[in-house]
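HUMAN: I'm a chemist; might I ask for a sequence paired with its structure tokens?

ASSISTANT:
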Amino acid sequence: MSVPTYSPAGRLLEALRKLRMTASQFVRIARAFDLPVSHAVLSDAFAGKRSLNRWVVPRLIDLTNELLVVKESHKAQDINLRVESVEY
């Protein structure tokens, strides 16, 4: 089952593609901003198995929009934000 393009999950998925970011990376960033989201819930939403919380969705979409602005701003200044490998 696929998720409709203009659904909240579809919009998030498209934004993550534009950011070249995995769902796991996005979940880590969202949690840093105290947004209650898990990888399992996001994966299920992307697979069309469940819907996302109505309170969280607008905040997640706002976060992806802000990340896209940052990416474009840095791209315009020729700054590469892509990190290939990070060890913790």
Summary: The first helix runs from residue 8 to 19. The helical segments are 8-19, 23-32, 39-46, 56-76.
